[in-house]
């Protein structure tokens, strides 16, 4: 009889312990979007020896709404246009979002050498799981062709 009481007591204490060890995940009631910063563009020499335009982003805050995609959008040929998701070339950065600086460039950003000056308006963007998009500040740059 004493043995049954000890087993019952231990079973009860185990269940009590398990019930307090599991916590439900709390869904944030106040969604906070990510904050993203547009970094300065620069030119570099690519693996083929050609010049490549590089664009960068950095998250200042990841927020609590999942980030589904991020990168840079740019408009070629204008220093005054505001890049939007509809009028721009999108450069997606494939690595996971974190607070480190990320850059994207490539051969697709090389333009015909007949243009004496290459002009861009660009900005960072992040698409969130709730369908909204957050943007960094608009920046402009021009590169002279050599």
Please explain how this structure is put together.
- The protein is mainly beta.
- The protein has a single domain, classed as Immunoglobulins (Immunoglobulin-like), CATH 2.60.40.
- Helices cover 14% and strands 42% of the residues.
- It is built from one helix and eight strands, in the order αββββββββ.
- The strands form two sheets. Strands 3, 4, 6, 7 and 8 form a five-stranded antiparallel beta sheet that branches.
- The N and C termini lie far apart (95 Å).
- This is Lipoprotein.
Topology (elements, then pairings):
Blueprint: H1 2-21, E1 35-45, E2 51-61, E3 67-76, E4 89-92, E5 102-105, E6 117-128, E7 133-135, E8 139-144
Antiparallel strand pairs: 1-2, 2-5, 3-4, 3-6, 6-7, 6-8
Overall pLDDT = 80
Task: Return the CATH topology.
Answer: Immunoglobulin-like
Approximate strand percentage: 35-45%
List the helices and strands in order: HEEEEEEEE
State the end-to-end CA separation. 95 Å
Query: CATH first level: which class?
Result: Mainly Beta
Counting DSSP H or I runs of 4 or more residues, the number of helices is 1
Tell me the CATH superfamily: Immunoglobulins
Number of domains: 1
User: Unreliable stretches, pLDDT < 50, 5 or more residues?
Assistant: none
What value does the Rg take, in angstroms?
A: 25 Å
**Alpha-beta classification:** mainly beta
Please give the share of residues in helix. Answer: 10-25%
Main beta sheet strand tally, sense and closure: 5 strands, antiparallel
Signal peptide: 1-23
Keywords: Signal
Protein name: Lipoprotein
């Amino acid at each position: 009889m004493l043995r049954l009481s000890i087993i019952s007591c231990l079973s009860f204490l185990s269940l009590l312990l398990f019930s307090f060890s599991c916590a439900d995940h709390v869904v944030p009631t106040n969604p906070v979007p990510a904050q993203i910063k547009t970094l300065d563009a620069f030119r570099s020499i690519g693996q083929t020896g050609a010049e490549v335009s590089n664009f960068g982003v950095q998250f200042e805050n990841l927020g609590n709404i999942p980030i589904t995609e991020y990168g840079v959008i740019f408009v070629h040929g204008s220093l005054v246009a505001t890049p939007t998701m509809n009028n721009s070339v999108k450069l997606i950065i494939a690595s996971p979002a974190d607070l480190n600086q990320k850059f994207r460039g490539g051969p697709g950003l090389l333009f015909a050498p007949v243009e004496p000056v290459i002009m861009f308006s660009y900005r960072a963007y992040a698409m969130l799981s709730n369908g909204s998009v957050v943007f960094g500040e608009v920046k402009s740059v021009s590169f002279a062709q050599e």
